[in-house]
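Sanity check

After download, print the first record. It should look like this:
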Amino acid sequence: MGAPAWADQRDSRLDDLFDKLKNVESISDAKGVEFVIWNIWVQSGDDAIDLLMRDGVDSMGRQDYKRALRSFDQIVTIAPDFAEGWNKRATLYYLMGQYEQSLADIKKTLALEPRHFGALAGRGLIYIELEDDAQALEAFEDALVINPFLPAARHNAEVLRQRLKDRAI
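Expected structure tokens:
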């Protein structure tokens, strides 16, 4: 049926890319490496799953959350070891305000790909919504260890550090 699995979170190129990501010297270099990582993560190696992924992402972009959820549900059912299927559904749940479901899918994403800086940053956003600044800060800091050039995560971490410091005073 589809092409052989040549990409996803198990792709052999990722180790070198993550090493490179930690050692780049500029945000533009980081963005280039990050782009390659995301392109690897989103490719399952199975044409049917990749089609569902495109449909889910497109539907999510159009705010057709019902259709997007159907696509992502199919992906995680058909390919439960494909981390990006879980991550995209986690993103959708976040957009829908279903934070507990999003956290559950982030947990699954990270079990499959512990270096998923997008899932970690997403977890930080959820904890902000849940008003748990300490957990949010921890999530953003974890994301920044993996990808030091995430401007939103860096900004959020700085704001949260200051907020927590102010509360301690």
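If your output differs, re-run the checksum step. Summary of this record's structure: The chain has nine helices and no strands.
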